[in-house]
Queue: 2 jobs
Job 1
Amino acid sequence: MWTWFFASCASAQSIDFERDVLPILTESCLDCHGPETAESGYRVDVRRIALRGGDLYPQLVVSGNAQGSPLYQIISGADPDLSMPPDGERLSRKQLRIIEGWINAGAVWPDTADRDDGTAQPLWSLQPLQRPAIPRLSESILDSNATVLSNPVDRFIYAQLAAAGLSLSPPADRRTLIRRLSLVLTGLPPTGDEVDAFVADCDSQAYERLVDRLLASPRFGERWAQHWLDVARFAESDGFETNHERPNAWPYRDYVIAAFNDDQPIHQFIRDQIAGDQWGVDAATGFLVGGAHDIVKGEDADLNITQRMDELADMVNTTATAFLGLTVGCARCHNHKFDPISQTDFYALQAALAGVHHGERDMQVFPNEQRQEQIAALERDLSARQIELAAFRPPVTPRANVEQFSPRLVRWVRFSIEEASRYEPCLDELEVFRAESDGHNVALAEHGTGVTSSGDYQGAAIHQLAHINDGLYGNEHSWIASTTRDAWVQLEFPQPETIDRIVWSRDRGWQEHVFDDRLAISYRIEGSLDGEHWELLASSRGRRDQTFRQRRALTTEEETEASTIVAMWDLMDIVADLEQGMRDWHHRPHVYAGRFEQPPIVYRLHRGDHRQPREEVPPEGLSALRELTASWGLKSDATDAQRRVALADWLANPHNPLPPRVMANRLWQGVFGRGLVATPSDFGAMGAPPTHPELLDWLASELMARGGSMKQLIRLLVTSAAFQQSSLPREEAAKQDAQCRWLWRFPPRRLEGEAIRDRLLFVSDALDWTTGGPGFSLFEPNSNYARNWVAKQQMTSSDFRRMIYAQKLRMEPDAVFSVFDIPDGGQICPCRARSTTPLQALNLFNSEFVLDQAERLAAQIEAVGLTSEQNVTDAFRRILLRDADDREMEWAQALASEHGLVSVCRALLNTNEFLWIE
Amino acid sequence: MRTPLTPSGNWLLDRRRFLSHTMTGLGSIALVDLLHRDRLLCADDDPPRFDGQRPFAPREPHFPARARRVVMVYCTGALSQVDTFDFKPELFRLHDQPLPGAEGLKTFQGAQGNLARPLRDFVPRGESGKMTSDLLPHLGALADHVCFLHGMTSRTNTHGPGENFMSTCFTVDGFPSLGAWVNYALGTENEELPAFVAIPDPRGNPQSAGNNWGAAFLPAMFQGTPMTAARPVSYLHRPARVSATADQATSDFLRRLNERHLAQFPGDSDLAARIASYELAARMQRSIPHLMDLSKEPETVLRAYGADQTNNSVKAAYARNCILARRLCEAGVRFVQVFNGAYAMGEGVGNWDGHKQIAEQYPGHAEIFDQPTAALFQDLQQRGLLDDTLFVLCTEFGRMPTFQAGASGRDHNPDGFTCLLAGAGVRAPLSYGATDEFGWRAVERVTTVYDFHATILHVLGLDHERLTFYHNGAQRRLTDVHGHVLRDLLAKV
């Protein structure tokens, strides 16, 4: 501090900014870096920009260190990639010395010489979250709207409507209301009976009860998960030309559905998706790797690095837009042009995710006491049953084979294999038990037992002689002999042992597939006390042959010992069940949720070019939020887990104002069709400002106050008068606010493509309600290296699950419904377009899919209806949830009599009324 | 004579004062909510401002256009420049010699073998004497009318990203295609047909399939509609088991229901637009089959394209696709993309990806590709359509002048390849840019895909820096933050 002060004082005397420095900048730089052009976003006439740098540099001038300042490097020719001025005369040595001295002296730039035009307004979304007061309304308003304005949301809405000279619309009729609520919360319509019951329910709490019922329905999560999967650009294939499916990506989809259904608090929801593997929520990190992945790697290393950088950019951008509503991805090549995000910020977040790779991993099983006890009990049971079974001399199995004999004192045990089922024989474990209750396995190497053999199979790390007594089961830890016949393996105990039982196996792992080749069929087991005289302990002689394994019927010769054989079979079944139980306990499903590795050191890449690394960047949160959230305190040697946990905690930090705002806005969008911020993943300067800033902040703070409960916030929104009002237009209001920004009515909107399909299947009663698990396919199977997906021609009933359970293939549109703006999974889609096109009309009116549903529905109606009028009434009630009026009845009956009820149904399924949330 | 509009259609048009517009007949076919992004679209005067009621209505370009439409022929699999249009005598001379400067070079599939001479001899063409390969004699014969861009480069040497890049200027998935941008910018001259048609190869889709004609984050209505001469638009016709009269009666009933419903929501343009969309769909049902009906094409035309060659069904089918492309141009479709090559059959079998057996594979591909493509060009020319149609021939990247080590084919080469531009406002004959003496790396007037696209937009009267659409934090452009218009290859106006 003292030296700096001293130096600055000393040099300041010799160099004056306005006299010495400014003229150089003006003469040599201003043409390209001034108010007119501002190349690379850099200006030398505004202090803030001049010192910080434009798009390319996070810090162009390092005060007190000219040599370390990119500005000086560029003008002095020290930077090999960039040299300024680009043409014309270079700066003279004297000029360079002036700049150098000025920077070394602290780069003093007096206020009087600053032309900052003050355009850099602080970004609203980065400000600390406040809880605005609920607007006070005048007594007269409150009196006339007492019931309406009990919900704080309505006070905010009302205040802004009133300011614009507008008002809320009257409440929607109950029939409309239950349809709207049901579609918004569950994506499915109510049944006709449910509508009738609600219309007839006079209880003042009827609506609230309906809300609670729908929020508790498993259908709620299926609906709301789709909104989030759009944000997460989730798809179940790699994209690019191969576009291979990811058969184990669905657990992430199920995680999101469950998170909504279980009302996962938002901070947990956020943390899980970044680092859930650290606390046993494996599937959640599917978020990180939900995007496209180019699996085609060439021999050209440069291009492979580019692919990796693209992957990481996708992860950083998706994470930042999803949770922060900030387009950090824009800062990959240069400082963000509009938001306070530097290039260093981008690489700091990239460093947080630099250990994440595309791919599958085993779901972890987190040990807990109860689980351990259950496994131990199962193991004891299995072991007892195996011993019991041994008495029957069952056929040999790749799994545990028990040999029992009277107690012998031995120091050596030799297992000789005369013949195996195929190839050279294999043993994964050879256990020898002391003759005592709960006898100890004395064969284990850890007790000093040595092992020799006739010869070992070479060249495979998983097959080693030492594996024979290492205590580990499974083909991965086994021994294979060097010869197909007459192989042996021999144990030598440190001292003589009295033994009475040997257990051996070929593959006793708990994976699904068991290796049954290389199984010893013909063998002898001998013991010796002195190493010279050997005694037979057990052998394959007398064991039943392999046919006993499959069949469960006796031959005529066997009838004399029928009871024995049947008892053996029963025991074999019991053992098999217990083994399956063990397998279930050990089952570790694969999940496409990323592989994690120790990250390399991350550098800021000049212009985003990996061939131009600059300074090292440790993992860290955005600098613009540093004051609110504190530094992570990590260095470049931090582990992958440390980084991701730090990122997760930082995102979920209650002082981080962005996630609550962003999430509250997404929930609002899901309810009203459009967010208070119309650009839900961009809360930056280029995004739309909030229409109701106080309401947004109030909702964000309310979300936090309610423990991050998304269901409670949604409940608050749908119980507002704003939600329950009519959607019918009012001319005078429409004139003033055609877009309905101030919510003078409930804004009607078209259903999404998935919801249209679901609704069609719902009304035709074809919907398969199966939840979770692998999805169904909309396409014919294809095994081409570059997949050539063709839409499935023939659907079966299991293809009629809700569309969120369709295996989502990237860039592959569904034949009928994708034209309704279903996102392609290429980039994030935080807000869907709602277009209307003739192709939509063709698909709905002419596709077999829709006609099938119309036919199915007509058949159901006709099966119970007695008259044409009843049939038409039924069709209207099932499809549009209302009765036909007289004219409609007349038209419909005429059509039905001429062309059948199916024509009526086909038309009704195409109506605007059917496709709209009103 | 246009079919009269329904009452609701008229009401809508009247309300919106569309009747004053010259193209009243087809108003209001569609509407996009556009996320209520009008503020964003209008924030700047530059992005196209389309009426949600008539998103396909023709729009004015930024400045007077040289071309009103584009037909783009896309060779998938990476067409070898050294075997087709980029003449390198050194390759003949140094056949089977090592490529200087390529010691230890690893391209996509690995190490290099020696230089390999082109598959066929090159011969001078037309008055210009431009040397092109006998592999593609029909296209070669057009040399006097074409601008060859020999200095093309790509950013990737992998097909999927490469196709993406050539179609969208981004190597990753999920960015709008050139055709979608053009559709968004200019609408179309015939609203009864899709504004942007993609015609996949008869053998199947290109590798990046729909990403080549996708709308990505542009409104879905601007995406390309895939169809081929053999397979028209999906669901164009009523299901087989519905009679024509039942279909019409159902459609009438639907319209009445929707109008009755609309009466409750007077002024709701979304609902009205949907009604109109069914009307346009009905028109498309009539106009598209007419367009696809090649039976009226004279025998001479079929023969000129090679569509009569029953002994080569792929060639005949591709030829029919080319005829369809011409008919689409005639009918006023704004952007037609014709693909030659598909990946369904594997590496190099059904496309230009000649890694291992190029001498066996290329002649067959050339036979399918050459005559029909050249016929399309000449047909457009003879009908005067080339005056205001930009003809584009492209591929995702080029191939090495060497054979791969241990193989008889060429590996990927993103550092130099050839594309063609011709027609409206493009100078011809012209050879623009050049690769080195081996046809390996572009060394003269090195041209990026961004430049290529910027130039195509320019010919259409569009400034690639002003054609933008807001998506998640950025006013996105087709050319990202790159690209320069290649003014030197444009004729003086």
Job 2
Amino acid sequence: MTRYGEGGARPGALILGLAVLVLVLAANRWWPGSGLLLFVWLAGWAVNSRLAHYEGPISAMLVPLIFGATLLASWEIACASFAIPPVILPAPSAIGAAFAANLPLLWGDFVQTILKGALSGWLIGAALAVAVAVLIDRSPFLQRGLLPIGNFVAALPIVGIAPILVMWFGFDWQSKAAVVVIMVFFPILVNMVAGLKATDALARDQIATWSASYAQALVKLRLPSAMPFLFNGLKITTTLALIGAIVAEFFGSPTRGMGFRISTSVGQLNLALVWAEILVAALAGTAFYGIVALIEKRVTFWHPSQRG
Amino acid sequence: MSRVMPVLVVLLGIVALWYGAAVAMNAPWARDQAARAGTPLSTGQLIAATMVQERPVLPAPHQVAKGLWDGIAGQKITSKRSLVWHGWITLSATLAGFAIGALAGAALAVAIVHSRVMDLSIMPWAIASQTVPILAIAPMVIVVFASAGVTGLVPKAMISAWLSFFPVLVGMVKGFRTPDRMQLDQMHSWSASRAQAFFLLRLPSSLPYLFASLKVAVAAALVGTIVGELPAGATAGLGARLLSGSYYGQTIQIWSALFAAAGLAAVLVALIGLIERVVLKRMGLAR
């Protein structure tokens, strides 16, 4: 009973392993420290190429996680073994330490920038955009006029309006909210106008045969069917809201806030704290998007895209 | 004509609103000046006074237009006050970054479509990264590069490249995947190699997605460059113009730089739209 067919792969794997070892050692000799880096990288990649052969949700979740972990490990190793100065790139462990040591500070910045600046501006901007979309709903003329302008404005560097609004509304969060209102208004407007048109003829006829008034048709049919479009706009603009609130702080802010902290910590070359703020921004951005996506799921449960 | 009219009417409405707001917002200062000089102002004089201030709260449209015209045509283009010069600084960094980012994004998309490991490893992160406000770290990138001795075009181009990379990557992966099973089977039955299937089927059918994502990417690249010009110390570019305007309260300068940036964005997006139309027409893909 020789299991030759299966055992045959082993010498191949052995040779491959030896080759990798030689490569790693050679790299380490040529450039000290790079051997470990190369090894971690190759090991992560090998595990992933193994896992990628399996279909299913587990490998689809594991593979990106392993890739991320490999990336983080390489970053840490590179910082340690090449002696990269922390004023250029701090190691992930240093960033984690800075994050843990400055929790109250980071929370204060989070409240100032995300909750007061970005969230309030996003809510006001979204409410305004929906209101305008409903108001111009009965005028095709206004729609034809506003839509091209809305699409055009959506491509402009609106963030540049921040210095003007900081002059008008002062340094505190009101000016940041104003920047966010303007940044999120047009993308949501364009989506909402498209959504209000998205009823099919059959449903419109049906509601007309029930002799529904304009308001009834709007509330019972057209607003609900506009929801997938509205949420599309709302999701796109979550990132814009954070960007607007943070960038506006570069033009002046009270002595707290994420943008303020980033610009002053860069000045003090305290890059670990800067990266901790970036971590907060990344977590906040993902959570913001996730919450909106969750609400969307509850509101538009009937839509084909949600019935997976 | 029926398409241009509504836009013109809405634009006129915006300009009218703007003049109204300019009068309302600049009036307190004009009244203050008049009260100090002890001369009473009639309504007509008040409105006239709100239109010609040196540092208005909100410059009237014609003041911005004049500032823009002075900046573009009124200076030698080598002058530091010329918007053409500042615009060129911004444009060169934007284009360099956009080219790098778009090429890298498209190349990685090719790899992702052909390798399941790459797909599973990178795509979730690429999609998740869209929810992260990357732009906010642009000033840090500039400062870090500066402390390593690299200044000028390269750091700004890096930010632009980073920002234009992800839209192109996500768009191109989607585009390369548009050919359905049947078309891929058809290529297979003609015994086409992987390279042939890529160049003859996947690449052409991805082009509409490519151009759509290029438009998003070039706008993002421009915003990235402008924000990259914001940190203190930057002296050139439209972003630096915005910042120095806000330091010295030169509102007309801010608005001119803003409109110059908007014009630049519009030209870049329109240019890609034009290339799109020509290319798709030649390939018979025009809708």
